[in-house]
């Protein structure tokens, strides 16, 4: 090989380490130390004798739903992780992206191909101005070719970098699906138990209002109360009865949703009854620091992976504007007879280097690079929005937990007052100082207060679930292999 060719080849190999396009830099996390404008208190108000304590920087358990002490929740989450189609699809998408990345690495290796051929040909010298007669002969060929693309400007490395970012995106998308799934299971179990409790309280209230209607009917017949009183009682009864079908419908929907989340048809899944009182409200709530949230929430990490991919695409588009270099070689045998096929006289070979440079494309490559830059800007804006939405969700949930405690406390006191009023009316009734209609009215007020109390308790449980989900669910605390599970 001539010295000049050696020097030129060495120079090409030395510049192979260069890469055009921006090197990806992770966005800096927010520097603030809190989620809300107001200073977060150390705990919520006491309600039902329960106080929830906020613990900034404490570790979030990967299986945070165990804190509710419900075997039904534990079994349903485990079943959903094994059989939920959305999670299975997310895991398959991750495996697909991993295989695409492995395929992308192949560009860094020489491409070797083998070929063989056999043909019968006719050659006529007259087509070249010769007087020789035409001849018919067989041609047998066997060859191997090797080519290697020199990634001088790093376009291929940026492409593989983008594939790796897509793997990250699919991994965090799978973790996000897992987090949403577990949160939906716990929330739906709580909602179903709350609907069941409200249905029971409403049925008891309807029974009392029917008794009230019978008493009022008797009083109207006796002429002691006007007929308008009976109409008012009947209107109230009908209004209460109208609240029962929607509650039953929502309970049915909760059962159907649980069946779907666990990978079953609604007709094939029977769920045991569950009492809201069986659940334990988590008392200690770990709070991820704001600077760490962006490194732990799957949706933010997925958005960052898309940002990384968009950054790599700028490098791919930039490298396309520069020349490409390829080394190639071939070695083979050619013969017109099978017996002489492997003789040394039929050996053919070639070595070469190709350079292809885009000279004029009508501005296509330039504008493709500008389009890649704008795609990066869009991905950056989407990432910022993901962070803003995440912080908004955490802030809303923290405030909601404080307000939930206040609501539960107020509803508890209202229910206690209604229960005290009912006892007084019952005592007066037994002493002959109140009529039975007053007893029924007081009892109805107590049951209405108890329904409002149940709703407030359920909301407190669900907002607690929302906090764990908003903080990322603690998947990083334990390697559970959820994203890579087959």
Account of the protein in words:
With 486 residues, this protein is an alpha+beta fold. It has a single domain (15-115, 152-322, 364-477), classed as Outer membrane efflux proteins (OEP) (Up-down Bundle), CATH 1.20.1600.10. The chain is 57% helix and 12% strand. It contains 9 helices and 6 strands, in the order H-E-H-H-E-E-H-H-E-H-H-E-E-H-H. It has helices at 3-15, 71-83, 85-104, 155-222, 227-261, 290-293, 298-319, 364-430, 436-470; strands spanning 53-56, 111-123, 135-150, 284-287, 324-335, 347-356. The strands form 2 sheets. A 4-stranded antiparallel β-sheet has the order 2-3-5-6, with no helix packed on it. Strands 1-4 form a two-stranded parallel sheet. The longest helix has 68 residues, at 155-222. The chain is elongated and about 140 Å long.
């Amino acid at each position: 090989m001539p010295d000049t060719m050696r020097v030129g080849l060495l120079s090409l190999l030395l510049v192979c380490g260069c890469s055009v396009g921006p090197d990806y830099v992770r966005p800096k996390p927010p520097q603030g130390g809190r989620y809300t404008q107001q200073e977060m208190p150390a705990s919520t108000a006491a309600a039902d004798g329960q106080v929830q304590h906020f613990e900034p920087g404490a570790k979030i358990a990967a299986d945070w739903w165990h804190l509710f002490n419900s075997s039904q929740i534990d079994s349903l989450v485990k079943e959903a992780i094994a059989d939920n189609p959305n999670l299975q699809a997310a895991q398959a998408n991750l495996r697909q992206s991993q295989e695409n990345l492995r395929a992308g690495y192949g560009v860094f290796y020489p491409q070797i191909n083998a070929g063989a051929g056999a043909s019968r040909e006719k050659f006529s010298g007259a087509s070249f101005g010769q007087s020789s007669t035409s001849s018919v002969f067989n041609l047998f060929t066997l060859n191997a070719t090797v080519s290697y693309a020199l990634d001088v400007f790093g376009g291929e490395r940026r492409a593989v970098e983008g594939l790796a970012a897509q793997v990250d995106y699919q991994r965090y998308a799978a973790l996000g699906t897992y987090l949403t799934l577990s949160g939906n299971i716990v929330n739906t179990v709580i909602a179903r138990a709350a609907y069941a409790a409200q249905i029971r309280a409403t049925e008891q209230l309807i029974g009392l209002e029917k008794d009230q209607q019978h008493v009022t009917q008797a009083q109207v017949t006796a002429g002691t109360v006007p007929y308008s009183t009976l109409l008012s009682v009947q209107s109230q009864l009908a209004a209460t009865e109208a609240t029962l079908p929607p509650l039953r419908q929502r309970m049915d929907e909760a059962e159907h949703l649980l069946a779907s989340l666990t990978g079953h048809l609604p007709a094939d899944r029977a769920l045991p009854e569950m009492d809201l009182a069986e659940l334990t409200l988590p008392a200690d709530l770990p709070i991820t620091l704001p600077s760490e949230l962006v490194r732990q929430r799957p949706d933010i990490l997925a958005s960052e992976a898309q940002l990384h991919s968009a950054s790599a695409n700028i490098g791919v588009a930039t490298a396309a504007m520069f020349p490409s270099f390829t080394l190639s070689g071939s070695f083979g045998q050619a013969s017109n007879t099978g017996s002489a096929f492997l003789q040394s006289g039929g050996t053919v070979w070639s070595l070469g280097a190709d350079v292809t440079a885009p000279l004029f494309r009508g501005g296509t490559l330039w504008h493709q690079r500008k389009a890649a830059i704008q795609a990066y800007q869009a991905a950056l804006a989407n990432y910022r929005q993901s962070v803003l939405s995440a912080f908004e969700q955490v802030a809303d949930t923290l405030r909601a937990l404080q307000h939930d405690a206040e609501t539960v406390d107020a509803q508890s006191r209202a229910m206690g007052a209604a229960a005290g009023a009912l006892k007084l009316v019952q005592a007066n009734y037994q002493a002959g100082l109140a009529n039975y209609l007053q007893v029924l009215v007081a009892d109805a007020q107590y049951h209405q207060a108890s329904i409002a109390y149940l709703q407030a308790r359920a909301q407190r449980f669900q907002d607690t679930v929302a906090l764990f989900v908003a903080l990322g669910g603690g998947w990083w605390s334990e390697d559970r292999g959820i994203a890579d599970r087959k």
